[in-house]
Design a protein that fits this description.
Helix content is 37%, strand content 19%. The chain contains six helices and seven strands; from the N terminus they run αβααββαββββαα. The chain has helices spanning 3-13, 26-36, 42-50, 74-84, 132-137, 139-143, and strands spanning 15-16, 54-55, 59-60, 91-96, 102-106, 115-119, 124-129. Helix 1 (3-13) packs across helix 3. The relative contact order is 0.17.
Length: 144
């Protein structure tokens, strides 16, 4: 999906963010890619960048080190979960549902990782979507 297509999808299902937030900088993305030894596909990057523009239920984790919505960063959340000792090191959380569950990417499969769902209660992980694009296309139903 192109950035404009993702923007149109989000515009139809989300409210605009109240304040002016900063999208991730190239150095923010580089730091994250080094941390996880992977590169992220364009759709994921576009989605995260557009989160500076829209208010999302639950917490889309931040990549930006600039002005954000106050949600934790992907890196902070990953480190926190790893320190608890129940997190698989290959999974990169990007959406905290709010009950301890997360949507994640698999660093070993980037940039074409499926989207996985992590269940907090039993630390189970299951494939949710075959691709990030498929996950995006299912957002209206998931949020509806």
């Amino acid at each position: 999906m192109k950035k404009e297509e993702i923007d149109n999808l989000l515009k139809n299902i989300l409210d605009e963010e109240v304040g002016q937030l900063d999208p991730p900088s190239p150095s923010d993305w580089k730091q994250l890619e080094v941390k996880f030894n992977c590169s992220f596909n364009e759709e994921f990057r576009y989605f995260i960048e557009l989160m500076a523009k829209y208010s999302f239920p639950g917490d889309i984790l931040n990549v930006s080190t600039g002005t954000t919505n106050g949600n934790d960063t992907i890196e902070f959340t990953y480190n926190y979960e790893m320190n608890l000792g129940r997190w698989n090191a290959d999974f990169i959380p990007f959406y905290s549902i709010g009950n301890g569950d997360y949507f994640c990417l698999n660093s070993r499969e980037c940039p074409n990782s499926p989207v996985f769902y992590f269940y907090h209660e039993d630390c189970r992980v299951e494939k949710y979507s075959n691709s990030f694009t498929e996950w995006l296309e299912g957002l209206p139903e998931f949020l509806g």
